């Protein structure tokens, strides 16, 4: 009993001349990285146009888990004729099995009135690998099956696809960043029916919390709704706020 007390006393109060070892540093808990951006265009005169866009993103990274969400929407008119009306969102969870290899679950949802897509839901589990994983630069590739359930052109259908995707992001020391992503989803029993989604973006800081963002988005549907074009290309500039 006396020996246990002496051991506890010596570990708590070092002997004279002995320097106590500093307590082990505890890393700060992970925080959410969140941002929201807004864009607005209004013209009047020879042509009357209005365009509104909004985007929200959030992500959080633990030692073995990564979680990310995103949503964007837009509405526009030209001479009282609607030319933009869309809403898109996604959520993705990554479970890291090693420093670079991970499994993921992803859910995408979208509505595009101009493309005559009432809704499109895409559920995709799969595996991913970080080809580059550094503090400033990341490049990942993902592959797996997917299931799409949609109502397009008045018809409702569900079918299996593959999903092949990649994403690149590079952060510059002054707070600027650029990113690029692309994915292709071919129907497994009909490769003539496939979707391609791609994005290219750049962001430059104005203050610690405000930045200017420009994003080029391309959505390709090889079998669109009747009377609709296959390719939709959007260039969006907006003011982003980090919080």
Plain-language structure description:
With 243 residues, this protein is mostly beta strands. It has a single domain, classed as Porin. It is 5% helix and 69% strand. The chain has one helix and twelve strands, in the order αββββββββββββ. It has one helix at residues 2-12; strands spanning 33-43, 49-61, 65-78, 81-96, 101-112, 117-133, 137-152, 155-171, 177-187, 190-205, 210-221, 231-242. It has a twelve-stranded antiparallel beta barrel with strand order 1-2-3-4-5-6-7-8-9-10-11-12. The longest helix is centred in the first third of the chain and has 11 residues, at 2-12. The radius of gyration is 25 Å and the shape is flat. The relative contact order is 0.12.
The strand count comes to 12
Fraction of residues in β-strands: over 45%
Shape: flat
Tell me the series of helices and strands, N- to C-terminal.
HEEEEEEEEEEEE
Strand order of the largest sheet: 1-2-3-4-5-6-7-8-9-10-11-12
Counted up, domains total 1
So, CATH architecture?
A: Beta Barrel
What is the fourth-level CATH superfamily? monomeric porin ompg
DSSP summary: helix tally? 1
Q: What is the structural class?
A: mainly beta
The Rg value, from CA coordinates, equals 25 Å
């Amino acid at each position: 009993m006396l020996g246990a007390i002496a051991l506890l006393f010596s570990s708590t109060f070092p002997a004279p001349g002995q320097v106590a070892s500093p307590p082990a540093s505890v890393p700060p808990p992970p925080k959410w990285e969140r941002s929201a951006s807004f864009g607005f265009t209004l013209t009047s005169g020879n042509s009357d146009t209005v365009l509104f866009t909004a985007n929200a993103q959030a992500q959080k990274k633990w030692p073995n888990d990564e979680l990310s969400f995103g949503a964007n929407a837009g509405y526009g008119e030209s001479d009282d004729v609607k030319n933009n009306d869309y809403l898109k969102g996604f959520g993705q969870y990554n479970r890291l099995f090693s420093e670079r290899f991970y499994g993921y679950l992803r859910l995408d949802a979208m509505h595009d009135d101009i493309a005559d897509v009432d809704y499109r839901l895409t559920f995709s589990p799969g595996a991913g690998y970080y080809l580059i994983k550094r503090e400033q630069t990341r490049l990942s590739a993902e592959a797996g099956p997917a299931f799409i359930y949609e109502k397009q052109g008045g018809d409702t259908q569900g079918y299996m696809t593959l999903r092949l995707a990649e994403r690149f992001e590079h952060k510059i020391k002054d707070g600027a960043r650029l990113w690029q992503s692309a994915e292709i989803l071919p129907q497994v029993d009909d490769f003539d029916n496939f979707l391609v989604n791609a994005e290219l973006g750049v962001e430059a800081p104005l203050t610690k919390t405000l930045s200017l963002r420009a994003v080029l988005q391309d959505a390709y549907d090889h079998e669109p709704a009747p009377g609709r074009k296959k390719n939709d290309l959007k260039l969006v500039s907006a003011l982003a706020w980090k919080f």
